[in-house]
Each structure stands twice: as structure tokens, then as C-alpha cells.
From TrEMBL:
InterPro entries: G6P_isomerase_prok, RmlC-like_jellyroll, RmlC_Cupin_sf
Pfam (any one): GPI
Gene3D superfamilies, per the entry: Jelly Rolls
Signal sequence coordinates: none
Natural source organism: Candidatus Azambacteria bacterium GW2011_GWA1_42_19
Biological process annotations from GO: gluconeogenesis; glycolytic process
Catalytic activity: alpha-D-glucose 6-phosphate = beta-D-fructose 6-phosphate
UniProt name for this protein: glucose-6-phosphate isomerase
CDD domains given in the database record: cupin_PGI (cd02218)
Amino acid sequence: MNGILKRKEFLNKISVLDLQKMSDLPIFFDEKKMDLEFRGDFQFIKKSERSLEEMRPYLSPYGKCPEGTKNPNAAKGPDPVYRVWRRAHLKQDDKKIKAVGLRYDLTLIPPGKIGDEFVKTAGHYHLPYPEAYEVLLGQAYFLIQSESAVFLVEAGPGEKFIIPPGFGHNTINVFNEPLLMANWISEKAEYDYEPYKNLHGASYYFLKNNDLIDIIKNPNYDSFPEIKKIRTREYSEFGIFKNLPLYSLVNTLDKLKFLNHPEEFKGEWRNW
Ligand SMILES: [Fe+2]
């Protein structure tokens, strides 16, 4: 009996992943619960969950649905679809962060699909503010779009991606593992979900077709700029590097000034 208990205890322990080194914060990922544990003074943190019901307007009605329906209102999937923790910073850093008007958030997207679509975030614009992302766990497909361009960026652990000013974005988890991302954003940034909601998602859907990923145009859009794939890179001009957790910039927040002053954004996006 004792042996069984010890084994259970052991199995529970290994399902919890230590993300301290990766994130520079005392956070742990509980794979069984598909949730995060915060083992520090995260006094200002606010958790929210996006339910399957809330996600329905953003889903594709296309593709083969194993449940025998093409109706997104009936598609099954993880519920909640994804979780967000806003102001996931330590109390000791609160003054510094507030002084520069920024916010640090985390987003967890489980693996799986809703109907035929890979699990994704709803998608939004927060014009004109950019947003700096980092993958802490898993692999992300960042899909960013404007009226004239659509870009897909694949990023793995430690890799960074800046959503440039003027683009809407959503993230798709097409891989068979949980995806955890961190981001810095201006406190002034507002979230506009309406364009994604009214058009039933982003300009392209990502559907599971056995081992293939079918990328399907969303017919609710008037124009379909071709998807271009771009690589992640380091942003030395902002002190953002692959092996440096985004949170550690809490000690050099002046480098993130561009998040509140997009006119000072001098990234490779500038000429688009
Ligand atoms: Fe965003």
C-alpha cells in the first residue's frame, strides 16, 4: 500500500514541470490539470478562461468533422479552450512595471482540436500597439494579419516574436503538446475582438487532416493575401534575445519603451 502511495506521489510530481529557468519566474506547469502553479508573491495576477461557448463565433464551419457535423456550434473540444493570466508579475517588481505602463501576461493553450480545427486563441487587434511574445513551452503558430498581408511565424521554446503595429493576431497550437506563451504589452492597449468575431476567425483556418495541417481560407474575408512564412529572430535593438526570458527585462524596462511608443518601433516591419 505504502509503495502504491509513493508511486502515486512520484507520478504526481513528474507531471509538474518547473518553468523557473525558462521564464525567470517561480511558475510550474501541471500537465495533468493543464494549469499553472504560482509559487511566489503574484499579488496582482488575474486569471481568465475562454470557454468553448465563447469561442464558437471564431470557429471554422469547414472541413471534415469527426463528430459527424460541420456545424461549429456542435464541435467538441477542450473547455476551457485556453487560459490567460494577466499581470503575472511578482509584487517586488510591481512599482517598476507600473512606472513604465506595461503588463506581463501568460497564455496556456492545450493541444487538441475543436471539430477539425486545431485549438487556437480568438484573435484581436490592439492598434496601434505592438506586443512582444515568447514561447515558454511547446510550439506556437503566430498568425498575424492586416488588410494587405498575412504572416505565419512558428516559434519554439525561448523564441521571441514581436507582433508589429497595425496587425491583428491569433495563435494556433497545431502540435501535440501544451503551448505556454508570455507577453509584454502596453497597459494602454485596448482589445478589439470584433473583426475576428464578425468574420468567424482569422483569415485562415488550420485544420487537422490526419498528419497533415490543412490551411484553409476563411471565405468570410473579401481578400486573401497569400500567407508568407517568416522566421523568428532576436531583437537586439530592444534587448530581446532567444536565451533571455522576457520577464528578465523587468530589470531593463526602458528597452521596452517601444511597446508604449510604436512610432519609435524600428523593427524589420518598418517598411511594410
Ligand atoms: Fe494581443
